[in-house]
Amino acid sequence: MNQEIPNQSRIDKSALTLGMSLLICGLTFLFINYSVKHFLLLIIGFGLGVSLYHAAFGFTGAWRGFIINKQGNGIRAQLFAIALASLLILPLLKSENYFGSVMVGTFGPVGISVLVGSFIFGLGMQLGGGCGSGTLFTVGSGNTRMMITLISFIFGSVLGTLHLPWWLSLPSLSYISLSESFGVYQAILFQWAILGCIALTTIFFEKQENGKLQNIYNKDNRPLIQILFYGGWPLLWGALALALLNFATLLVAGHPWSVTFAFGLWGAKVLSAVGVDVAQWEYWTWSYPAQALRNSVLNDSVSLTNFGLIIGALVAASFAKKVAPKLIISFRSLIAAVIGGLLMGYGARLAFGCNIGAMFSGIASGSVHGWLWFASAFLGSYFGVKLRPHFGLL
Fold first, then answer.
1. Are 316 and 231 in contact (CB under 8 A)?
2. pTM of the model
3. Which DSSP string corresponds to 166-185?
4. How many other CB atoms are there within 10 angstroms of residue 272's CB atom?
5. Helices (H), 215-300
6. Given pLDDT bands bounded at 50, 70 and 90, which one contains residue 129?
7. How far apart are CA 246 and CA 261, in angstroms?
8. Contact (CB, 8 A) for 134 and 308
9. How many CA atoms lie within 13 A of 196 on its CB side?
C-alpha cells in the first residue's frame, strides 16, 4: 500500500509561522548587529535541526536499539557520518577558515575525567531520553519532557564547570592527535579501519540475532520533494547532512560542531544574573570561558548553532505536523529526566563534550579522547538501558 502523501493542509501552520518568524528575525538581527559569520552559524544550526528531526537521527535510541535488539543500522549511520567528517575535517586543521582564524580540532586529555565523565553521560542519556543534539532537536519539536531534561542538563553542566579543575588534577595524559602522530591521511585510514571493524561487529550481532540487516537507506515511494520537506529521511541522508554541516561549522566558526559548552555558559549566565559570582570559579577564569562569560551568548558560536538547531527542529516538526507538547508526565519519568539531564550535563563537562563535541567532532579531529569517550559512554549507556524499566521507561 502506498504511503499517504502529506499535503499543505497537514502542516502545523502556527508552529511553522513561529519557527520561520524566529529564524527570519534572528538572521536579520545578527546580520545588522553582529556579522555574516553569526548569520551563517544560525543557518548551519537550522540545517542541523531539520536534518536531525527529519532523519530521526538520534544517538541514544540507536545505541539502545543495538543493546536491546541488536539492531545496528543507527550505529552504522553514525559511523558513516564520523568517517566522512574525518575525511573532510582532518586535512584542514591548522589552516585558515573563511574569516581568517586558524581552524582547530576538538581535543581533550586522555584521562580519568574523560573516562568517568563519558560513562556518566552514557548512563544519563538513556534516562534523560536524548543525547546532546537529541535533547535540543526534541525540545525544538515540542517535547515537554525533554525540556525538563534540558534544564537539568544546563544545571549539571554549570556544576561540572565548578568541579572540573579537581577532576583535571587526577591522572591524565595530554591530548593525543592521531594526525600529528602519524600524518593526516594515515590517521584517516587508521580511523576508517576502526570504524569499519565496529560496523562489522554490529552486522555480525544483528545477523546472529535477527537473521537479516536493516539498512541505512530505506526505499520510499513518495516523491523526493515530499520526503525532503515532510520528513522520513533515510538515515544515510541524515549522516551525510550532519557530516557536511559539521564541515561547514569548521569553515565558518573555526572549530567543528559542538553542543554542550553553551549549556554551561547559559547556566553560568543565569547564576550570574541572580548574584552568584561565577566569574571567580577557576573554570571561568580560563581564557576562552572567561571571554564567553563576559560577552553576549550571541557571540558564542556554539550557542548560535544550538539556537538554530532548535528552530530548525520546530520548522521540520511543523511540516510533519508533530508539534504536540505532552503536558502529562509520570512522576517516575519526570525523575528520570531530571537525573538523566544532571548526569549528562556533569558528564559532558568532565569529558570535554558530549556525543557531538567529544565523539563525533573529536574522532573527526583525530583526537584519541574521542575514542575513549565512545567506548566509555557506550558502556555507561548499557547500564542506563538496564535502569530504564525502573523508571517506567521502555
1. yes
2. 0.94
3. HHHTSSEE---BHHHHH-HH
4. 14
5. 224-230, 235-253, 261-273, 287-294
6. very high
7. 16
8. no
9. 6
**Per-residue model confidence as pLDDT tens digits over 84-109:** 999 999 999 999 888 888 999 999 99
Closest of 62, 44, 138, 46 to residue 98, by C-alpha? 44
Residue closest to 125 by CA, chosen among 146, 140, 102 = 146
Cβ-contact 40, 245 below 8 angstroms: no
Residue type for position 169:
S
Distances (CA, A) of 143 to 23, 138, 307, 334: 20, 6, 16, 13
Counts for the chain of helices (H) and strands (E), in that order: 17, 2
Residues 6+ away with beta carbon under 8 Å from 28: none
Read off the pLDDT of residues 334-381 as tens digits, 9 standing for 90 and up: 999 999 999 999 999 999 999 999 999 999 999 999 999 999 999 999
Supply 220's cell numbers.
Answer: 520510499
Q: Which residue matches cell numbers 563576559?
A: 294
User: How many CA atoms lie within 13 Å of 286's alpha carbon, on the beta-carbon side?
Assistant: 8
Cβ 203 vs Cβ 213: under 8 Å: yes
Whether residue 21 has pLDDT greater than 90 = yes
382: phi then psi, degrees, rounded to nearest 5: -60, -45
Cell of 122: 552514557
What grid cell was written down for 167?
577532576
Which triple of cell numbers denotes residue 125? 542519556
Beta strands in 105-210 (DSSP E): 110-111, 172-173
Q: Write the CA distances from 47 to 25, 28, 93, 311, integer angstroms.
A: 17, 17, 23, 9
69: which residues sit within 8 A by CB, 6+ positions away?
209, 210
pLDDT digits (tens, 9 = 90+) for 38-53: 999 999 999 999 999 9
